[in-house]
Amino acid sequence: NEGSLWGARFAGGPSPELQRLSKSTHFDWQLAPYDLAGSRAHARALAAAGYLEPGELDRMLTGLDALEARVLSGDLVAADSDEDVHGALEAALIAEVGPELGGKLRAGRSRNDQIATLVRLYLKDHAATIGRQLVHLIDALAAQADQHRTAIMPGRTHLQHAQPVLLAHHLLAHGWSLSRDLERLADWLKRADVSPYGGGALAGSTLGLDAAAVARDLGLAAPAENSIDATASRDVVAEFAFVTAMIGIDLSRIAEEVILWNTREFGFVTLDDAYSTGSSIMPQKKNPDIAELARGKSGRLIGNLTGLLATLKALPLAYNRDLQEDKEPVFDSVETLEVLLPAFTGMIETVTFHTDRMAELAPAGFSLATDVAEWLVKRRVPFRDAHEITGALVRYAEEHSLELHEVDDAALAAISPQLTPQVREVLTIEGSVASRDGVGGTAPAGVEAQFAALADRVRHL
Ligand code: ARG
Fold it and tell me: If you take atom 3 of ligand 1, which residue's CA is the nearest one?
């Protein structure tokens, strides 16, 4: 079985059916640059321990560099007979430097500690990319908020008009939740930044290789403390899949609002042409496909996470081939987000807000009723009574098709002697927003302070 990593103890080669099932090069070839980086680090450890002469190490490293150049140029790809990226690259190394030297590299390592290391290297790189993309999105939300510092919109609970809020406050709310995703990526790295190399198949190596040097070489913080855990655990992969799913969910919540705001009924936003799509039959259509794809792809990200968790459940220690099923879902989550995030950010950067329309609707639905109740409380009316009085006022206004500020003095007094005409001072959306000046509230000064606080949080992640 030429070019295979195993076979001597077998009477014959694997069946074609097994080969087809077992093959992983169509997805793990992505790990080739990391596999070669691992091989370079491992070769240095072998040389340091006396298993490669200095001249041999030089030839080995030159050979590995040559393979890397060929992988990057696309000249070297996995052959049909290769089972996985590790076997394919060993066969290519042997072709490059000869069987005598090429056959020495595998000493003291297993595909089990290799693959566990490579997936971490891959995820670490992509965590950095996704982190940068998230920062761009947070910046885009903050820039839109900055351009609409005084605009007021209807704040909602249960999707019903609740209380007026600043548009900037609402946009920054999404920025804050995304900043926690960024924090999750940074926190994930503390657990991911470990090198399983040296764990071997499961029990460690007899060759006295310096695992700490290999970890350093690969840019990982430390070697793993337990070789069984190192080769058999994939919680780090599952956690990454969770973070990507959470990002997807956070995007989907923005997306759902953009979709609603973009309807004729809301009329809160217009999407830029470059970030909208048309219909093949209805010439007038301009659709929010980026937002819809974000909403849809969040389901896919959740699916990748739950599939991976199902794979890991009840898996005995140590390595089992089931673990090969970790890669396709998490690779898919990475690829999905890395394509989605820039499009989503472009949509946010270019969306136009119709602040007049938002302001017009902000007081509708008696959204200033809480302001009336709290105005009464400030006049020492117990809140329970204030709630009752305000409820009666809302009912009166609704029955007479009036807004709260349109109820006349006599009607106010008839509802309650406490409702003096001064109450109209709080019956403007500007007054309402300005009065919510407690910590985290929507008053302009508080929202103003959030810009620096959010930027500061993001910068420290
Ligand atoms: N392709 C495997 C994986 O992704 C690594 C190889 C380990 N294979 C083995 N038979 N021990 O997990």
Answer: 324
